[in-house]
Specification:
It is a single chain. The chain is an alpha/beta fold. The protein folds into 2 domains: 210 residues, Rossmann fold (3-Layer(aba) Sandwich), CATH 3.40.50.300; 51 residues, no CATH class. Helices cover 32% and strands 28% of the residues. The chain has a 6-stranded mixed sheet with strand order 6-7-8-3-9-10, sandwiched between helices. A 4-stranded antiparallel sheet has the order 2-1-4-5, with helices on one face. Strands 12-13-11-14 form a 4-stranded antiparallel sheet. Helix 5 runs parallel beside helix 6. Bound molecules: adenosine-5'-triphosphate and magnesium ion. Adenosine-5'-triphosphate binds next to helix 1.
Length: 277
């Protein structure tokens, strides 16, 4: 369990990235969602002890990130949103270095590395230099490091950004096998739906919603999304409303499109700047 207690982060230039965030993450997989700049990376970096909060704290499985930094670090593994690999080393060398630095013996490390590389389709390129791999393969290599880590808690900041559809499915399948706690940020609604037991939606540094996808979509019960020239919410030149199927059908002839409601609609009704009523 991860308990975020009244957490705030103000960067040195005055940007308030998080404001009094209190959350309890109790589920196996939590997806953090939110628009660009909402504060997802800031929150993930603080939880994984890479960034100090301005105030408040986080308690991970009973350990406070302020008091027990070393102990907490030993129990978690995290993949930042942007990472630079060491170009001349191979995927296998990256994973081996990471695991041995975490105190895992060479013999076991080799086995974990092999498992994770096979699972993520990296086995064929295990000896290539990282600098010669595609962007998506590099990304998968870092995901493999976290998977192989055997950590109690894994933080993944946009692990599947830039991955092809097959690679994404490989990552999902690998994540499903992990027994520990996983906190993942994503912009892919499908991914959140596939993977998460719970989602947290952040808007401008504050959590605005928490629950299972099913639970959160219940507020749209019996309604469909209608897109057209007029309506309650506006994104650029398009208007969106949420209406009963009967009401929506009456608009079809007038150039409106009907769609099923999805997680994306939670972003729309929770504003976030560009959207006007
Ligand atoms: N090092 C920094 N110094 C100053 N401001 C920063 C710094 N890092 C992030 N910010 C600001 O903090 C806010 C939150 O940024 P953060 O990277 O946490 O957002 P995010 O939700 O991860 O966005 P994205 O979806 O684009 O990755 C933004 O306003 C951002 O500009
Ligand atoms: Mg981010």
């Amino acid at each position: 369990m991860i308990e975020i207690k009244n957490l705030s982060k103000r960067y040195s230039d005055g940007t308030k990235a998080l404001e009094h965030v209190s959350l309890k993450l109790k589920k196996r997989v939590t997806c953090i969602l939110g628009r660009n700049g909402a504060g997802k990376t800031t929150l993930t970096r603080i939880m994984s002890t890479q960034l100090k909060p301005s105030s408040g704290t986080v308690v991970i499985n009973g350990l406070d990130i302020r008091d027990d930094v070393d102990e907490v670090r030993g129990r978690l593994s995290s993949i930042p949103q942007e990472v630079d690999p060491w170009d001349i080393a191979s995927p296998e060398e990256h994973i081996m270095m990471y695991l041995t630095a975490r105190g895992i013996g060479r013999h076991e490390a080799k086995r974990y590395a092999e498992e994770s590389m096979k699972e993520l389709g990296l086995w064929e390129v295990r000896d290539k230099a990282m600098g010669d791999l595609s962007g998506g393969m590099k990304r998968k290599c870092f995901v493999a490091m976290a998977l192989a880590s055997q950590a109690e808690v894994i933080f993944l900041d946009e692990p599947t950004t830039g991955l092809d559809p097959i690679s994404r499915i490989e990552v999902w399948a690998a994540l499903r096998k992990i027994k520990g706690t996983i906190v993942i940020t994503t912009h892919y609604m499908e991914e959140a739906k596939e993977l998460s037991d719970e989602v947290v939606l952040i808007d401008k540094g504050r959590p605005v919603m928490q629950g299972s996808v099913e639970e959160l979509l219940r507020k749209f019960k019996g309604k469909v999304r209608v897109e057209g020239p007029a309506g309650r919410y506006r994104i650029g030149g398009m208007h969106i409303s949420y209406l009963t199927t009967a009401a929506a059908k009456r608009l079809v002839d007038k150039g409106y499109t009907i769609k099923q409601v999805s997680l994306e609609d939670l972003f729309i009704i929770h504003g976030g700047g560009l959207i006007e009523g």
